[in-house]
Specification:
Radius of gyration of chain B: 28 Å
Order of helices and strands of chain A: HHHHHHHHHHHHHH
CATH class of the largest domain in chain B: Alpha Beta
Helix content of chain A: over 70%
Distance between the termini of chain B: 106 Å
Number of helices of chain B: 21
CATH topology of the largest domain in chain B: D-Maltodextrin-Binding Protein, domain 2
CATH architecture of the largest domain in chain B: 3-Layer(aba) Sandwich
Number of strands of chain B: 10
Oligomer: heterodimer
Helix content of chain B: 40-55%
Largest interface: A-B, 63 and 58 residues
Number of strands of chain A: 0
Distance between the termini of chain A: 95 Å
Number of domains of chain B: 3
Number of helices of chain A: 14
Strand content of chain A: under 5%
Radius of gyration of chain A: 26 Å
Shape of chain A: elongated
Largest sheet of chain B: 6 strands, mixed
Chain lengths: 270, 535
């Protein structure tokens, strides 16, 4: 009997850690993904992996989401992230990126120059990492609208465009083109440049849902205003084909009819 | 002599025993509930119709699912916000909860208390087996593909609810009164000219008979819906002219930015014309209507004191059941390009009724029976469930593939018209409040468009600045919340088996966050350069 009990005890102690009771850090991340910060924090405290980089990182992210958010709480998060950012792994890059985000969007008084500095530093350290690349997209936004320098619209656009060659992740290249194209439109720059960025974003692809429809409409309508009838027709038609329930379909169909008529008058359509 | 009472007692006892047996086996509730799971559904649609629709769906669902009991909890609208907030905070809320993005002061609720349904929305609804929707992802089985819900989502790209219905605003007519007034079995007014002629006939009828009848039942809510309709059509051309970005519409933050940049004011002729038409329409209501509620207008109509009531189709069932006369729903005629008041600004026929679906049901994050609640939601929004709900409520279903009876066709919103996406009845909370605070200067006996415009424009710059500041705040709040989710998706990709769906979610979140920040920073730029400076 005693021998059998010892055997069971031996088997239990040999079970891998993942099969024992108690949540692991991935469970906590699942909860973070559902914005259940308090549950995630409780899970991390009850978990088996205290002190690992993964756990410290998860705790820092939970700290950003825990209510009530306070300046002091965010400063603690920054301290943890700063420590993690000294490493050489993905967690280090993600932490460095989040420090930039803290200065850009989370602290009660944003510090945009400091956020830009953090993104620049990360891009210099790990230029190919996803987080560094995402930081460059955010840096483009800062240069276009928020940093004091460069002052004029053309200079701002040039400063943002200078970041494009450093982007190699296709999704983020696309997003940067959208950011710059829409800024050029906002700052009333020549339409040729606006459309070039938007078309490039479309070429890179990957947008879905509302965002995809918005880009199609924007390219179509701006092309129509420029008299680029065929380009306008193609994009309006795509919008109609993919968005049967959108309230703008009716007006788009009218515009399509007008375009076809223009093309017919110009002899480009039978 | 002594045996007869004893026999009588035995007979009585036997009869009572048999009656008790019959009662226990056929009528009484079981001592132990045969349905181990009870889910509860709360909503505020206590008008005639929806409770009956729910009851019909629940009956059928319980037939199909003997394990589950479903209870509906109907909560009056005036206390709904407090009821929801209190119960969600206290952990006593129902498993499914009606909610809407426009409930004021409740922006934090979805992310905090509701479980997203995004993943489930990508799979077909299992209760649609054997129908034309069998293989269609759940999201696309809704008439609007939940486009409207997605565009209003507090968390970019996340779907939190499923919708049950769709509707529009319609003119409901007292047919008997119409025949009395016109002397013939008159047809619905087809044009605004017909409508104006009918209004004159109503005034004449009142003078002749002494029976005071108004063309339109009046209340504050009904005027708001009327204003939406009138201003939407009149402002469409202006909205499209202001659309520099090529989206063929204006969002609130764009309309606010346009105002601060001096691109529109209420002094613009198209808005002045829209206001003039609105004044003309409100003169067809009883005096003091701005102090009256939606129920007052319904009572005025069912008492036969108004020929028409302009209301949402959600009142259709109530009106038909409460009125002692036949009620006919019809479209309010649209102004045309030859209209003497607004004609020059009308582009053509415009959209009549929102294309988005509504009556949104959300899943309580703390529900002890999430699987059963989602299963019931699947049935409620399946072709069969949608049909049952519509047939018993009289409310148009949000579900594609449901057969709409001819009498409900009129309730269907129309999309075959122009849309500029904005009504300019204020452009945010502060400016909208100002619009309605000054409304008496437009519609009162001594009111005029000039008086209203001058009054509303005073201080509007400050209010629009506040509105834009609030929009920026909302954009950035939503964008900030996404950071932790992006990190979570990335960490799970690192720690668990690769999941293309999770990877896509991470990339989509990152993109949507950036695009949302474009809007926020453009708005901030406008605020910085053109907004009213704070002291």
């Amino acid at each position: 009997m005693i021998r059998r009990l010892l055997l069971w005890l031996g088997l239990a102690s040999a079970l891998p850690a993942g099969l024992r009771a108690g949540p692991d850090v991935a469970d906590a991340w699942e909860l973070v993904g559902r914005h259940l910060a308090n549950d995630a924090r409780a899970g991390l405290q009850a978990g088996q992996e205290h002190g690992s980089r993964e756990t410290v990182f998860a705790a820092a992210v939970v700290g950003m989401d825990t209510q009530p958010v306070t300046e002091a709480g965010l400063r603690q998060v920054e301290a943890r992230l700063t420590e993690l950012a000294r490493g050489g792994d993905e967690i280090a890059d993600a932490s460095a990126y989040l420090i930039g985000r803290l200065y850009q969007a989370h602290f009660f008084t944003p510090d945009y120059p400091r956020a830009a500095q953090e993104y620049e530093r990360l891009a210099a350290k790990s230029p190919g990492s996803y987080w560094a690349q995402l930081g460059l997209v955010k840096l483009a936004l800062l240069r276009l609208y928020l940093l004091p320098e460069p002052g004029g619209p053309a200079a701002r656009l040039a400063a943002a465009e200078a970041l494009l060659p450093r982007l190699s992740v296709l999704d983020l290249q696309r997003d940067a083109h959208l950011v710059i194209g829409r800024a050029a439109l906002f700052h009333e720059q020549p339409m040729r440049g606006v459309l070039a960025h938007l078309l490039e974003a479309d070429r890179l692809g990957g947008l879905t849902g509302l965002r995809r429809g918005e880009l199609q409409l924007q390219i179509a309508e701006l092309s129509r205003r420029e008299g680029r009838w065929e380009q306008a027709r193609i994009y309006f038609q795509r919008f109609v084909d993919e968005n049967e329930v959108d309230g703008r379909v009716c007006i788009v169909k009218l515009k399509l009819a007008e375009i076809v008529e223009h093309q017919r008058v110009e002899g480009k359509r039978p | 002599m002594k045996r007869r009472p004893r026999i009588l007692m035995v007979v009585l006892f036997s009869a009572s025993y048999l009656a008790a047996l019959w009662w226990v086996f056929t009528r009484s509730a079981p001592l132990v509930n045969a349905r181990p799971v009870t889910i509860r559904v709360a909503h505020w649609q206590i008008e005639k119709g929806p409770p009956e629709g729910f009851a019909a769906v629940i009956r059928r669902y319980e037939e199909l699912n003997p394990r589950v009991k479903v209870e509906q909890v109907a909560v009056p609208g005036p206390v709904y916000r407090q009821w929801v907030r209190t119960n969600l905070t206290g952990g006593t809320a129902t498993d499914l909860v009606e909610f809407a993005y426009w409930l004021q002061g409740m922006n934090d609720v979805p992310v905090r208390y509701f479980e997203p349904l995004t993943r489930a929305m990508n799979e077909p609804n299992p209760y649609n087996r054997g129908t034309e929707m069998a293989k269609v992802p759940w999201r696309l089985t809704f008439a609007d593909g939940l486009y409207f819900m997605l565009s209003q989502s507090p968390e970019i790209g996340q779907i939190y609810g499923a919708t049950l219905s769709q509707g529009s605003s319609r003119l409901f007519c007292n047919r008997e009164l119409l025949e009395k007034i016109t002397g013939t079995p008159a047809a619905a007014p087809a044009t605004l000219v017909d409508f104006r002629r009918l209004c004159a006939q109503v005034a004449d009828y009142s003078r002749r008979t002494g029976h005071i009848v108004r063309p339109l039942a009046g209340a504050y809510s009904n005027v708001q819906w009327l204003a939406d309709y009138v201003m939407f059509g009149t402002a469409t051309r202006m909205s499209l002219e202001l659309d520099r970005e090529g989206y063929l519409g204006r969002a609130p933050w764009q309309a606010q930015s346009d105002y601060l940049r001096g691109r529109w004011t209420y002094r613009r002729p198209e808005l002045r014309a829209g206001l003039a038409l609105l004044r003309e329409m409100t003169q067809q209501m009883r005096p003091g209507f701005t102090q009256l509620s939606r129920d007052d207008a319904i009572q005025e109509f069912v008492r036969g004191e108004a020929l028409f009531i302009y209301s949402g189709t959600y009142d259709a069932t109530s009106l038909k059941q409460l009125a002692a006369f036949p009620v006919q729903a019809m479209r309010l005629p649209q102004p045309t390009q030859d209209d003497p008041v607004v004609g020059p600004y009308i582009m053509g026929r415009y959209q009549d009724g929102g294309l988005g679906t509504g009556f949104e049901m959300y899943l309580n994050k703390d529900s002890p029976h999430k699987a059963e609640a989602v299963d019931f939601l699947h049935f409620l929004t399946s072709v069969e469930g949608g049909q049952l709900f519509m047939d018993h409520s009289g409310w148009l279903s949000s579900v594609r593939g449901v057969r709409v009876p001819p009498e409900l066709e009129i309730n269907r919103p129309t999309s075959d018209g122009f849309s500029g996406g904005f009504q300019y009845i204020g452009v945010g909370a502060s400016s909208t409040m100002s619009f309605w605070q000054h409304f008496n200067l437009l519609v009162g006996p001594q009111g005029s468009v000039d008086k209203f415009v001058e009054a509303v424009e005073t201080g509007l710059r400050k209010q629009v600045t506040a509105d834009l500041r609030m929009e920026i705040h909302t954009f950035l709040d939503a964008s900030r919340a996404v950071d932790s989710e992006i990190m979570a998706m990335s960490a799970l990709n690192r720690l668990r088996a690769p999941d293309p769906e999770r990877d896509l979610r991470q990339r989509t979140l990152a993109c949507n966050q950036t695009l949302s920040e474009i809007n926020a920073y453009q708005a901030a730029w406008v605020l910085e350069h053109h907004g009213e400076k704070q002291p």
